Amino acid sequence: MGRTVALTLACVLVCGVAFAGAVFVLMPGVRDRSTTASAGGSPTPSTPPKPPQPTPTLPDSTDEPLPGVDTPASPPPSTPVANTGTYECPGYSGIDSNVPLPMLLNDTFQWGDDPPYKVGNGTGNINWRADPYKKPSWYMWLHSLRWLGKGIAAGGSGDRTALTHVMAIIHDWVQDNPYSWKGDVGAWEATMHRTNVLLCARQAVLSGLHVSKLPTQYAWLDKSLVDHAQFMIVNWSGQSNHGTDESVALFGVGCTLKRPELKQLAVDRLTQAITTAIDPQGSTNEQSVGYAMFNYLLWGRATTALQRCGSDPGTVIDQRRAALSEWLALATKSTGELQQVGDAVKQKPTGAAGTALDYVASLGKHGTRPAKRVAAYDAGYVFGRTGWGETRPFAQESTYSIRYGAARTLHGHDDHMSITYSSHGRDVLIDPGHSGYQLDKWQAWSKSQAAHNVMTIPSADTASVDTQLVRASITPTWESYSLADSPAPGMTRKRDVLVLKDPDLIITLDRGQATDNQRYETLWHLAPGQKVTVQSPTTAVATAPGAKTYLLQIPYQQQPAKDGITVVEGQQDPVQGWYYPDIFHRESAPVVKFDRTGNEATILSAIVPTAPTETVTYTTRTTAGMFFVDLTVGTHKTTVRVSADGRLTRIS
């Protein structure tokens, strides 16, 4: 899932500045998606395959189990596993949790938050074209067969009724969906998931019947495994998480059926994919923090599978996963959850013992504390924090993210220049989250600029573009960043960001310029459950039990209009003011807009979280051509300078 029309990323040099190991610069690699023909000695399908065809565009609807909703794997072991010559059943990613054995024996399927649906006649004869809720993900998970997990487990433990029924369902799928099933998107996209289910079912037959060789009555199962292997050979998805999962499943077939040529092809593809899937800095090619976590677990599972069946995974996977572990640690908020950037649900990181991930997952109680406090990655991410709990509780540190880099692809959003921010033990500025894989107005909004903390130009026909990190400065008590792009012909957009510690706050300077009049809106998406009061054209205050945030529109070069601050929440047409903790639930959440109209706009914002009893005041002054903002937050005072070129600097 998440594949787009253009599946090749142009090689883009993202500008950055190195600061004592905190900022890195790397030429992003070229993403190549290819279709590979059968390797020599590859299996013969039950019906001859068609020659490889160009890969069509698929809807963003059928991919890996969503991180945080369907758990993809357990943390990989920290030490190599023994070579047993076997491929271990990887489980069912939680898809089977909603289908207990009695429901399965009644041919009833359930996924997500939709009601159970009877897809068969009770004997294992399934209507594989059933699509009652018109949801591509529901349909794909039906074809994955992962919902049979409870029955396969019971059958493997000696329950003959369960074994007979699940094998009847699997056989029904094989009969009703002959090779090649490429014409059915749901069946196609589920291939690697279904391959693993077939391998699990094969193991259940052997253990459930207490035999060492597959009985002849199940010869069709091995034949279907060969078909599935051939399908994945001809239709490899390339260097994405989808292609990696295919390679692991292909390796599983080779290991199980003693086909060394399949194992070798899988290893070759994994070797090719790892350097694209995870770059040397630890960034993945998915443009999603949630899928970065998934990839960390997925590549751990790949390593384990190779070791268990006698193949050497080499050193690169471990090296890239170690870098990804550090990346994910920095991408973890002070609240103990991963940043919801890109297609990502609300979830905690999965820590591996002794790693930086273990440190953040345990809120600093154990594991290895990351060496860096702030890092900017060439793939287009800045992650920063006030500290790791050295001088204040871990959860009371402030954390933030900023996006830039290559244009949107895969599981990314149009979120360039967007900021997320957590402080005072709570989320302050949020990403909208992941609305799911249904192609509808909700997905269109959740991926759009309008769903993120950016300056938008809603009156223009903007597009997803590359965004440069022009410069960065890192000091012990503040960081500043300058970003720039051109979201439409004849338009430019610049954002300078200043992040402070003591007092903890964020200041941004947005500038937009166009050849004609446009409407400009700097948007601030706040966490749900807050009430926003507009106190003046320059001040809005968001409150919730135990929390308060000031949102200031500080006059600079342009005077805010009397109605220059508006608040939107829970709006459906056009969609605005929502938050998705996961793909099944949507909550209304306030959005504060700072507005301008004209050929150009200059919007200076301050986002200041405080304790409930604290107040925020400011004054401005101009000295020697420099603009200064003197801020008082409770008892803390600080001064910020705005240079003529827009650069923001802390003075005191």
Automatic annotation (TrEMBL):
Secretion signal span: 1-20
Protein name: Heparinase II/III-like protein
Alphabetical UniProt keywords: Lyase, Periplasm, Signal
Biased composition (Pro residues): 45-57
InterPro entries: Chondroitin_lyas, Hepar_II_III_C, Hepar_II_III_N
Biased composition (Low complexity): 35-44
Location of region: Disordered: 33-87
Domain Heparin-sulfate lyase N-terminal: 117-292
The Heparinase II/III-like C-terminal domain, residue ranges: 404-552
Keyword Signal attached: yes
Localization (cell): Periplasm
Species whose genome carries this gene: Kribbella aluminosa
